[in-house]
């Protein structure tokens, strides 16, 4: 083997050793790194219609009774031939079947499809953000929504926020649980371990910092 070939072989071996050591060190760090966030997938659930939502009601072969209507604050809708029909707390499929029953008095074997086009959701489907958020508000829950997604939606926190003293209030089996969260670590330091999966009905409380 000539000198150049020998040097090339040795360089390749050294590079392989370096890669192996790097992987070992990174693996050790990952094993011992504290992970406080819960990034598990939220349980699957069907969207429930809430007051303020908009629903598009399509009645097959009957365009005169097909229309888009808002869900009133009392949770009911009104359409041609159907008055004061409860909609809040139902899935779009459940509401479609109820409309079919109501229309059956006037139309033979009606076929109805309901499409939700404006999302607010029931109170149990919302995530509320209170305290020192830039834009405190109630957000419609989305599947697999994380704490970071919520912070983006509310524009982050104010300069007076005590982010690492924030908490999420969650209803677990009928009991309220207070879970501390580290917003400063997540926002300012980019610590992904401080992220967590949100659940429908969660309340994020961001207190004010007292100097």
Folded structure, characterized:
This protein folds into two domains: 54-118, wza like domain (wza like fold, 2-Layer Sandwich), CATH 3.30.1950; 123-206, Outer membrane lipoprotein wza fold like, CATH 3.10.560. The protein has four helices and ten strands; from the N terminus they run H-E-E-E-E-H-E-E-E-H-E-E-H-E. It has 211 residues and is α+β, with helices and mostly antiparallel strands. It has helices spanning 3-32, 92-103, 147-153, 183-187; strands at residues 54-59, 67-70, 76-79, 82-86, 112-118, 126-131, 137-140, 166-172, 175-181, 203-206. It has a five-stranded mixed sheet, with no helix packed on it. The radius of gyration is 27 Å and the shape is elongated. Residues 6-36 have low confidence and may be disordered. The N and C termini lie far apart (72 Å).
CATH topology of the largest domain: Outer membrane lipoprotein wza fold like
Question: How far apart are the termini?
Answer: 72 Å
Compute the number of helices. 4
Outline the low-pLDDT stretches: 6-36
Main beta sheet, described? 5 strands, mixed
Indicate the topology:
Blueprint: H1 3-32, E1 54-59, E2 67-70, E3 76-79, E4 82-86, H2 92-103, E5 112-118, E6 126-131, E7 137-140, H3 147-153, E8 166-172, E9 175-181, H4 183-187, E10 203-206
Parallel strand pairs: 6-10
Antiparallel strand pairs: 1-2, 1-5, 3-4, 6-7, 8-9, 8-10
Q: Which terms summarize this structure?
A:
single chain; 211 residues; alpha+beta; wza like fold; Outer membrane lipoprotein wza fold like; 2 domains; 5-stranded mixed β-sheet; 3-stranded antiparallel β-sheet; 4 helices; 10 strands; elongated
